[in-house]
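Hello,

Our lab assistant flagged a job as stuck in the queue for most of the afternoon. It eventually completed. Since we weren't sure the result was trustworthy after the delay, we are filing this so someone can double-check. Below is the sequence as submitted and the structure that was eventually returned. Let us know if re-running is recommended.
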Amino acid sequence: MKWVTPNDDGAMEVNKPMRTAWRCGWVGLALVAGCIKSVPADGNKVRAADYYPLAVGNSWTYDVNMLGEQRSMTVKIDSVANGFYRDSTGAELVADAFGVRDQKRYLLREPIEVGTTWTNVVSVSSVERYQITSAGLPCESPAGKFEDCVVVESRNRASDTKTLVNDMTFARGVGMVRVAMVLENNGQIVPQTTLVLTSHTATGPALIKAP
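-- returned structure --
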């Protein structure tokens, strides 16, 4: 899935392959914040790939609200090329030894614990700073209740007064459950985009509690 970035005016601008697809954010998702390390019941190390299962055929359907415009969107992994999984929005993703990334940025990096930080330089004028703010706690959406989730915050400073803030929630064995993007402008919070997972066909080591 590809990403939206602020233009010179601080407004949302979508990469060309994404003009009809991936807009970040979810509404109506209940999250429990916390500061603990995510460790599975069997004691094995949790990998970033556990929170974004990549396989041809996996799909995710979201309710999307972008600047007040609502619609449904389905993202499906269609193929594998040059070591990357390619989805229906044109994005290319891979899980490597460090985390899960696309062609420009890591979406999630190890270790999967609160306080882990990393930086993505996506262009000469765009630097994204990431931090895991919650790990190993439940989250939910219309798609269900998930017992092991990770929340990542990214910040991209657009100007001296404007910063684009993106909160992404990943559920183990499921993938992205929620994304909420806002623009901080002179101390004001301006909602931009939200997505909420409504259904999925992803396969992975899910820890899912029935509703």
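-- support follow-up --
The delay was a queue issue, not a problem with the job. The result is valid. The radius of gyration is 16 Å. Residues 8-42, 205-211 have pLDDT under 50 and may be disordered.
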